[in-house]
Every structure is written in structure tokens, then in C-alpha cells.
Design a protein that fits this description.
This protein has 7 helices and 16 strands. The chain is of the alpha/beta class. The protein has a 7-stranded mixed beta sheet, covered by helices on one side. Helix 5 runs antiparallel to helix 6 and helix 6 runs antiparallel to helix 7. The termini are far apart. Bound molecules: manganese (II) ion. The site of manganese (II) ion (MN) has 7 residues, from loops. Manganese (II) ion binds next to loops.
Length: about 350
């Protein structure tokens, strides 16, 4: 039995609005889902498992029709999904009444239910969110009923307000595979075969600047030997954290050129979170509002410190406040709070003196 596990597609989200790429970003989320569906069709995947938050908010009727059309193109694959905390089954949710194509099996109950696929010797279990938050550890009480040789659980949550998950409890539930959703972060997963696997797919596409790393889906196969899984990257963009160390030769202009080159090397399609560190020339301040050459820098955090020659400054200002101030901090280590106070104070005094 071959499956593909995705989660947190967040259709309808518009990440980083106001940036150069943000207008096409909502469409990209749909395109990537379509790509996954193409893979299912090409590889004759038996089950497409969607572990919650297919939508970022309550789905519109036309969005459900579009998604259903995409699913209906699958000639072999069956689709099983649950609703997560973002697309929870609200009283007026279109999820309640929508007529899905016959190959789509929503597990939209508030209590645990399962669907059996005897031809695949597989049963898939799950329940959906009816509220935005569920603080009860509901997965602590679930178990496989052994209706079929292979049993899968779709589960969504893993933080305090969204069904806290205790891994050791999940391990004793008897499921062969637990397809998790909700945590967007992805981890490198080496290809493995185990009797049981419990995995987060991570967001299909990164939708928040904290969703760093390579995103995609999990491809798996279950047979009598166990569960084989492998992570497949397919997201169009990646949030890349970058730390750039400056030196006293750097000016705003030269730093902008350095950043531009780094972005070109790591991909102009990616999104960057930049931290500047190191010592800059004490006369220079970096104008970070004009450094985003490609419009893909989500944030630039300037943590650089001015490079003062404190000994020289103290000597030159033997008799005044500046000299006295510097001598007060004599010998403090460079990463201490005192050192920070020294730098900030010197900067303030110098600004006042000029
Ligand atoms: Mn979620």
C-alpha cells in the first residue's frame, strides 16, 4: 500500500503581504498541491492523506469546488482528510454539506471514526476540530481497532492549545503509521523502514517566516515488513535564515552588494531572514531599509556593534565625561551587559559632543 502524507497546505493564506512575491504566493500554494496530486496520479499512489489545515481559514464554496476538481482527476488515488484548527468545522462551514467526489473520504466527525479500504487491507482513523482550540490531549485515549492488517491515524495538533501530543502514548496505540499535522517546521528524515512510524509532514509550503527548512511531503509504503518513508522536497520557496558578519571596512553600500550576492547564490526565489553581526566602523550606520535588492528579505536585524578604540578614546578624553565613563568599564568582557552599556553610552556621549 503506497501513500503520500501532506499537512498544513493552508490554501487561502497570503504570507508576507506587501512583498514583491506576495501577490503570486497564494496561487503558489494551490500550484504545489496540484503538483502533489500529479505525483499521486503518476505513481499510482493508493492513498493521499491530508492531516488537517488544508485551508488557512474557513474554505469558500468555490475553493472546495476547485480542490474537489483536483481530487476528482485522480484515477487511482483515494483521498482521506481531516479538518484542523484553521479550517475547523464551524457551525456554518461548507465542509458540513459539501458533496465530495467519490474518491474523497473526509473524516469530519468530532469523535474518532474510521474508513476501511479492504482492497488495500487498510483502515484510516481520525476526527476533526470543531473549535479553534482543543487543549485536551485527546490522542492519549485513541487506539487502533485492528479492523484491517494496516492501520493509519490522521492526527492534528501538538501544542498546548491544539491537542497536546505525548509521543509515548501514540507509540502504544497500535497504529502502523500516524500522519501528523499542525507543526509546520520540517526536519530532515532519512529514508527508514520501521514497524511503526509517527511523523509530521510539515507545511507543504512554508507559510510563515518561522517555517524555515525545506518543505514538501512524505512518501510511504506499508507492507508486512513495516513502514518505509521518505521525505520529498517540493516547495517553491524556502525561508532561509542568514547570519552575516560585517567588519570595519563595510559601508551601507558594500553591505548591500554583499547581501545581493548571497541572495543570488542561495536563490532569488527564497525568502530571507537576515541577522547582521560583527563590528562596524564606528562612523557607519547601516541603512537596512534600502538593502532588499530583490524584495525577498522578510527582516534584517542589525546586531552589529561600533568598533571603538576605547583605550585611545579614553586617553584623548582624559579629563571629560567620556574618558571617565570609559574608565568605569575598564576590563569588562566583550559579550557582557557592561560592555553593551559601554558601547551604548560612548555612542550617546559622542553624539552629544559633536
Ligand atoms: Mn494547525
Amino acid at each position: 500500500m503506497k501513500f503520500i502524507h501532506i499537512a498544513d497546505v493552508h490554501l487561502g493564506a497570503a504570507p508576507d503581504s506587501g512583498k514583491a512575491y506576495s501577490e503570486i504566493r497564494p496561487k503558489e500554494l494551490w500550484d504545489t498541491l496540484e503538483q502533489v496530486i500529479d505525483v499521486c496520479e503518476r505513481e499510482k499512489t493508493d492513498l493521499l492523506l491530508i492531516a488537517g489545515d488544508l485551508f488557512h481559514r474557513q474554505p469558500l464554496l468555490r475553493e472546495l469546488k476547485e480542490v474537489n476538481y483536483m481530487f476528482s482527476r485522480l484515477t487511482h488515488t483515494k483521498v482521506v482528510l481531516i479538518a484542523g484548527n484553521h479550517d475547523y468545522i464551524r457551525r456554518d462551514s461548507y465542509y458540513r454539506t459539501f458533496q465530495w467526489n467519490q474518491n474523497v473520504y473526509p473524516l469530519f466527525g468530532e469523535e474518532m471514526e474510521y474508513i476501511e479500504f479492504p482492497e488495500l487491507q487498510t483502515a484510516v482513523y481520525g476526527f476533526s476540530y470543531y473549535t479553534k482550540e482543543i487543549s485536551k490531549a485527546r490522542y492519549d485515549e485513541v487506539y487502533a481497532c485492528h479492523m484491517q492488517p494496516f492501520e493509519i491515524l490522521l492526527a492534528h495538533g501538538g501544542d498546548e492549545k491544539h491537542i497536546p501530543i505525548h509521543r509515548e502514548k501514540l507509540e502504544s496505540t497500535g497504529f502502523d503509521y500516524i500522519a501528523l499535522g499542525h507543526i509546520h517546521k520540517t526536519e530532515e528524515i532519512p529514508e527508514t523502514v520501521k514497524k511503526q512510524q509517527i511523523l509530521y509532514a510539515g507545511a507543504l509550503e512554508p507559510v510563515d517566516k518561522n517555517d524555515t527548512g525545506i518543505h514538501g511531503y512524505i512518501e510511504g509504503e506499508i507492507n508486512v515488513q513495516g513502514v518505509r518513508t521518505r521525505k520529498v522536497a517540493c516547495a517553491k520557496r524556502e525561508y532561509v535564515p542568514l547570519t552575516v558578519t560585517v567588519d570595519e571596512m563595510q559601508t551601507s553600500g558594500s553591505l548591500k552588494a554583499v547581501l545581493k550576492k548571497m541572495v543570488e547564490e542561495k536563490g532569488v526565489e527564497n525568502l530571507y531572514k537576515i541577522v547582521l553581526t560583527g563590528y562596524r566602523d564606528a562612523d557607519i550606520t547601516f541603512d537596512t531599509s534600502h538593502m532588499d535588492s530583490y524584495g525577498n528579505m522578510i527582516e534584517i536585524l542589525d546586531k552589529t556593534r561600533p568598533l571603538y578604540d576605547f583605550a585611545h578614546l579614553a586617553e584623548e578624553n582624559g579629563q571629560n565625561l567620556l574618558g571617565e565613563y570609559i574608565r568605569m568599564f575598564q576590563g569588562c568582557p566583550e559579550n557582557s551587559t557592561e560592555y553593551k552599556a559601554l558601547c551604548a553610552g560612548v555612542e550617546a556621549i559622542l553624539t552629544n559632543m559633536h
